[in-house]
Design goal:
Blueprint: H1 9-19, H2 26-35, H3 40-51, H4 55-61, H5 65-70, H6 76-86, H7 88-96, H8 108-117, H9 124-127, H10 130-134, H11 136-144, H12 155-169, H13 172-180, H14 183-193, H15 198-212, H16 222-239, H17 243-258, H18 269-281, H19 287-304, H20 316-340, H21 343-346, H22 350-367, H23 377-407, H24 415-434, H25 440-467, H26 485-491, H27 501-511, H28 515-523, H29 526-556, H30 564-594, H31 596-601, H32 603-615, H33 626-642, H34 652-666, E1 669-670, E2 681-682, H35 684-687, H36 690-710, H37 713-721, H38 723-733, H39 742-758, H40 761-768, H41 771-778, H42 781-810
Antiparallel strand pairs: 1-2
Length: about 800
Amino acid sequence: MTTSLTVTTFAAMSDLSINGAPGSNPASETASETKSVLCEPVRKCIKVLERAENDTEKFAALFLVPKLVKSSDCDKTARLHLVEAIGYSFLARMLRSKDTPDGCSPRMYQSVALSVLSCFVADEEIMTNPSVLFNLPELLDIIGDADNEIFEDNLLLINDAYQVIMAIVSTQKGRQAFISNRGIHYLCEINVRQTFQCEDALKLLLNILTIEGHKCWTYYSGPDDFNNLMMKFCREFSLLQDQSKFELCDVIRTILRSFPKSNFDEDPWLPLLQKGLHDILFSKISKKQRDPAMQLVAAVIEVSDFEWCLSEDMESQERGRFFLIILNLATIEVIMHLEEQTLDEIMTNSELLVSCYYIIESAVSYMASDRLLLLDHGQRGQLYTAMKNGFASILRFLQEMAVTLRSQTHHLENNEKKFFVCATIRILGAWLAEEAMANREEVCEILPFILQLANETFESQKLSKLSMLPGRGSTDFRDFTEATEASAMMTRLGQVTPDTLRFMLPGLCHLVSEQTPRQILIQMKIQEILFAYISYHWTIFDSYKKWLEEQAEAEDSADVAEPFYMIDNAKFEMVNSKYAMTTICNILMNLVVLETKVVEDDQVFFHILKFVMNTLPSLENNGEVLVLYGNLVVLGLLILQKHSRRPKSTDYSIYRFIQAVVRFLWDAHNCEEAREEEELVVSTPYIEHWNDLIDLWYLGMQVLSNVMQVLPWLADFIVDSGWAQEIVRTLFKVRPKTGIERGTLSAFEDFLTSLIRTSPEVAIVLHENGINHVCKMHRMKELTATLNSEIGSKKCSSDKEEKASSEESEK
């Protein structure tokens, strides 16, 4: 055995770090004193192990260990001394040994080593020792090969391997080692192949997925293993017609929610999952059986949207029936719990309720979509009634919560309760985003409460999330994805409070346009909250933007790039922050336009202007950021026009900002992309987003004209850029009447008119570029009048100067 158990450097170092170097030192003296208080059987065993002259003698002494550890006299101290006497390196060599003396059972050394290790599963220090963790691959090979004939006479070996692995993954350090050794791959393979003791493998897998989530799937074949596992369980789910069908709901839900957000619409297991859910929800079953199915429905909607509820494969009536059953069940659950129970009672079913919230929230988003037309008129009426009743209950619950918190401020100190209330606010935000005028008085009543709590949740998680950004403190940001409230409820106390403010933004966009809620929001300092929030989302957006650029370079240069799912997560974060910033811009623009007096002297708006001037030039006015670009342009111009404080002329950022403004407005149209170049068309990069950009373009043109009145130097800047001249040359190419939309022509006319009025010298430049002919072509009367006025006054002034000069010469 001595020759077969080769000592590795790693194991030897581990053994040395625990047992210490040879020689006398204070630590060894203390250890000796501790040994003296151990019970007699333990001390004798330790002596035998320490005096063993070779591996054979030590191996024989190991058979005493299991019986000793099970005795009541063997406490934690005794167990630690026993392991030190055995030696981690010795156990490690036994685990890696596949040789067996003649006449002995196969894998005898591994069996004895695991039998000994399984005695110490309650001791974290032992289970997380580097030598034990280093040998995780050996344990994984054993459970992964459990059907091998070599284990037929030694099934206890496999059971011990599971016991040791379970003890290892019960610790954070152990789970990290397990995941990094592709342990999830082994567990998936065991479940798909139904290897011996696959039930234990499934329990182990679900436990790790629940705690570690999508970090479990970071290895190369993770997505394939996930799909194979889902295919296996969804096939069973679609076929089973007994109690095990309901038990599978929780299994599938846990697996589904552990995987990073993705589009599963084309995966073959999704129709099987839908069929199984259809069977359950259309059957007469008890609430206990239905609840897991409802939670699974929420998980499916989370990963694939509500699309599958309105599948084209169903007939219209059947399609609507399935949709309404899901929604009615969800709203009934919400109404029953929120109206009839206290918060403490509600918390016992909070997980189910949050799943119902997710179903209702997804249905709300479909209210404003074309897909809702797939339902007939009667079904749409039932849908709206169900949701209206559900949201009435949600509002009453939040009203009562707001009143309670005035006298019991500690009511939400419990994280689980806070998570649930945040989830309730989130679903209300979804309703307010689509149903602008519903229950407005009740909403105004609770607005201070929900905004205060939303801001608290943002502040509580801000530093944690920012520290996880690439290049900002953490090198591992794989768990940085958009966490839904339901997933927050799953992991409970281990997480920071979810960012509820993010889900309030679309609703705030509607509320800020109305007088009463707007005054409440201003009293709550909404502008300060939004300034902090847009700065926060810009940091996220910019960090991932730079990280993705680095990944693209790494891929091009054949360096090892990050896994695709991490890149997808980074893109998801960028999109989320991009939409958040766009919505914030809309809220702030409404404030600037509707509350001019508030904006004029509020320093926060000047800081927002500085933020816009510094960030906008770093974006490109094309692609997916074009709508955000346009919103930042108009927001900056509005504040520049309304605020009493102006940037200094020495501030270079104002020039870069105006350059970005001109670029956005200039690049929106051209003639070159038209068939005969006699028509002004929307530029190709703008076409895809033109529905979102058209109002921004018109407003940008108008506000820029107004800004020139307060910053006259802008006129010269614009002429120097060549844009004004290009407008004239472009209009010269365009056919009158049919070559350009009247609204676009009016916008150009108003802009050029304002430009000339701001700086009369501009008229001469435009005159040189054929402005007079263009005015006649397109019948731009106001511009013609302005030109004539300015050129006439210039000519009159010039004639006077010549006359004065002539008279002076004659004298």
